[in-house]
Amino acid sequence: MLSRGSVRLRVCVRASVRVSGSADPLTLTPHTHTPRRPSSTLPLPPPRNPYTPRTAQREEDVIERKRNKSQLTPWHYNKQHYKPPQPLTEDEEAMECLKKQRSLFGQYGSRSGINPSKAWPSKEELALEREWERVAHPHTVQHMIDISRKERQEEQMIIKQRQDDISRKLLSLEKWKNDLNTRVAKQEKLAREAKEKKERLIDEVRDILGFRVDPRDERFKEALELKEKEEKKRSKAAKKLAKEQRMLDQLRKEVEGKEEEKEGDKDDGEKEGDEGKSLHGKVIV
């Protein structure tokens, strides 16, 4: 059985020596370095330049991508910084609508790479524009000026009528204020009379009962209802009497008017009779 020290020694020996080609595995020889073959006398080729145009462009693209902290695409980056987009290829120009190309030319000009002749309308577009102009604006310039002048005069007339109406209402403002104050005073008077009437009825009920009673007492409420009914009967009778008095006055006026008419007719008849007698006397003479 090997001890720990012998195992460590064996590992160190194997690391520093190599086994020889002898049959005895215990025979060890030190490791020898094989000498390198001498180099040839031919000259070495020149070193290759790693910086070709393609690699330089590739490195430039890498640097630009690192500088682009916004991580925007080239199209969005150009649009954000108001730079013209990449020129359209033939296929893109054939596929892109004419309206879009005109918009690019109007925004970026010659930098957009769009042919300026595309900005001019075609014959069909000119014909359609003339047709739209004829339908949308059928009147002549002078006729349109007259219409505008007439509309302006109508607006001025409406404004003047409105101002006159406001001025007229301002003149009646004091009258309206007085009417409002009168109505308010009348309502306050009615409310005050109703309150005084209720207080008077309460005092009368207390006088009838002979002692001071809480208004929430049932006996007080019953007595107050009876008193209110009596008050309503007296008020109704007074109104009826006033109505009868008005009717009598009206009848008296009608009778007096008829008597005056009869007296007037009688006087007119007497005058006609006197005139007839005088005329008859003249004829006889």
Automatic annotation (TrEMBL):
Q: Record's Gene Ontology CC terms?
A: mitochondrion; nucleus; ribonucleoprotein complex; ribosome
Pfam families named in the record: CR6_interact
Q: Where in the cell is it found?
A: Mitochondrion; Nucleus
Question: Would you say which domain of life the source belongs to?
Answer: Eukaryota
Region annotated Disordered sits at: 21-63, 227-285
The residue ranges flagged as biased composition, category Low complexity, are: 25-42
Task: Name the UniProt key words of this record, in alphabetical order.
Answer: Cell cycle, Coiled coil, Mitochondrion, Nucleus, Ribonucleoprotein, Ribosomal protein
Q: Where is the composition biased (Basic and acidic residues)?
A: 241-278
Purpose = Acts as a negative regulator of G1 to S cell cycle phase progression by inhibiting cyclin-dependent kinases. Inhibitory effects are additive with GADD45 proteins but also occur in the absence of GADD45 proteins. Acts as a repressor of the orphan nuclear receptor NR4A1 by inhibiting AB domain-mediated transcriptional activity. May be involved in the hormone-mediated regulation of NR4A1 transcriptional activity. May play a role in mitochondrial protein synthesis.
* Family per similarity comment: Belongs to the mitochondrion-specific ribosomal protein mL64 family.
Q: What is this protein called?
A: Large ribosomal subunit protein mL64
Task: Give the organism, scientific name.
Answer: Petrolisthes manimaculis
